[in-house]
Structures are given as C-alpha cells and as structure tokens.
Write a structure and sequence with these properties.
The structure is a homodimer of 128-residue chains. Chain A has 128 residues and is mainly alpha-helical. Chain A is built from 6 helices and 3 strands, in the order H-H-E-H-H-E-E-H-H. In chain A, strands 1-3-2 form a 3-stranded antiparallel beta sheet. Chain A is globular, with a radius of gyration of 19 Å. The mean pLDDT of chain A is 92. At the A-B interface, helix 1, helix 2, helix 5 and helix 6 of A face helix 1, helix 2, helix 5 and helix 6 of B. The structure holds a DNA duplex (20 and 20 nucleotides).
Chain lengths: 128, 128
DNA sequence: CTGTATCCAGGGTGATACTG
DNA sequence: CAGTATCACCCTGGATACAG
C-alpha cells in the first residue's frame, strides 16, 4: 500500500496519494468562494448565503461541512432562539485562504484576456 | 445587463460576472495538474498522460482543449508520422501556473493536518 | 434563522474500443 | 502516437418544501 507515496513524499500527481484527494476537495468553486469570503472574519450562515450569490442552502451547508471536517473552518453555535451560528477560518484555513483568494483575484483580473482568447478560438473554428 | 459587473469591476462572488465562470473553469483537479505539469516546459500528449496518473484520454484532451481555448496553453502539431504534438503554457498560463502550483504544493504539505482533522471529526460522530 | 429532507435533471467522468 | 466515438453511470448540484 503506497497510499502515502512514501518513500518519496507526497505527490498529488499520483491518484493513490492522499494529497490527490485534498486537491480534489479544493477543486470546487464554492470552496474557493466560501474560504475567500471568510477571509476577513467570521460570518453567519445568512451572511454567507447572501455573499455567495446563487448558492443553494444545500450546497452552502455541504461545503461548510466539508471544510469543517477537514479542519479549515470552525463552526460555533449560539444556543439561542432564533438560532445563531458563526463560521470562521482556522489557522490552517487562513493559511489556505491566502492562496485561494489569489486565484479568485486572478480570475477577476484576467477576464479580458481570456474572453479575447475565446473570441479568437471561435473565429478559428468558423474558418474551419 | 450587468454581466460585466460594472461599474464596480469584476466580482467572482456574483454568478453573472464572467470572472465567476473563469473561477469555475479553474475548479478542476485536472486543470490544476495539467497546468502544474506543464510548468517546467513543453510536453507531449503521452508524457502528460503518464504524468497525470489515472487520467483518461478523453479527459486529457478535453482539459487541454479548454486550456487552449482560454489562452493558457499553446498546442503545436508536427506533421509527421507517427503524429507528434507538443503542449506548452502561454505567458498567461505561466502566470497562472505559479498560483495553481502553490495550491498543489499546499495539498501535499498539509495532508497530515487534514487527515488528523478528519480522524477527530469521525471520533466526534461516533460519540454522538 | 439555520438548516434538513426529497426529488430530479443533467452532465461530468470513466471505461472501452476504435481511427488516421 | 494522438486522439475520437460511444455508452453508461454515478452523483453532483439545483429547486423546493419543510422542520426545530
């Protein structure tokens, strides 16, 4: 069983390596956005729902549960009525957030170039 | 039509913003790995297939086509027999590669912490 | 307010076989 | 070698309604 990728260390290129699964877990736009949103402090469920435009209650909960399970997000429940729940990044989550947020920012910054590339690609297909 | 997110600039949190679609396109483990693999220079189709362990021909081609369409990868065909095709990152792709590769590296670096978090989470569920 | 419970459509993904 | 074509299938992800 080489699931640890030993003795050469972890290698995400190997499908049996745990780091491959971690990478897969991170490959979700809702994970990106959730972690990025929490980057500047704790937020309530409703706040997140409004910030992550278009997310359904199910996906929001599901995403938060995964992040909580993997130690990236901490969930705090206040036993009051109506319910009050807050989410915040753990130290590990904050470490990751710096990277994920850069990707988000990159996506925003390079829209024009990508849009342009797509237009050129389409033209090429028309000619053919 | 606020698809450009104007007048406040692009915002990936808004589902109608083009940057949201870009983020979604990047949310794929095969995109991560393909771009990371190409980071150190051009590669042939077969080389990529071997490097990206477990990828099917279909997914490899599909991923490369998306990256090519969006201007992140350049495809060069040598008209010889047997066929010879090489892929390499464009300038835009290299810019992105730096970020994506950091995520990949992060995934490898933090496996122990995440594994540990999962174990604790499981224990919690058992108690309940 | 913060979720859970269903249901459902759709397509991403893989496996396989095959062609130029 | 590089890629296409097909098929099936899971299962994600969305919509909705409802509960504590």
């Amino acid at each position: 069983m080489d699931s640890t990728c030993e003795p050469y260390g972890y290698d995400a290129f190997r499908r049996t390596c745990p780091s491959h699964a971690v990478l897969e877990m991170l490959s979700s736009k809702w994970v990106y956005l959730t972690v990025s949103a929490l980057r500047h402090g704790r937020m309530r469920n409703g706040e997140l729902a409004r910030k992550l435009e278009g997310i359904t209650p199910k996906m929001l909960t599901q995403t938060l549960r995964v992040l909580e399970r993997d130690g990236l997000v901490r969930r705090q429940v206040f036993p009051v009525i109506p319910p009050h729940v807050e989410y915040e990044l753990t130290a590990l989550g904050q470490d990751l957030a710096g990277l994920l947020d850069q990707i988000r920012s990159w996506s925003e910054r390079h829209v024009p170039e990508i849009r342009n590339a797509r237009l050129i690609a389409e033209r090429g297909r028309e000619v053919a």
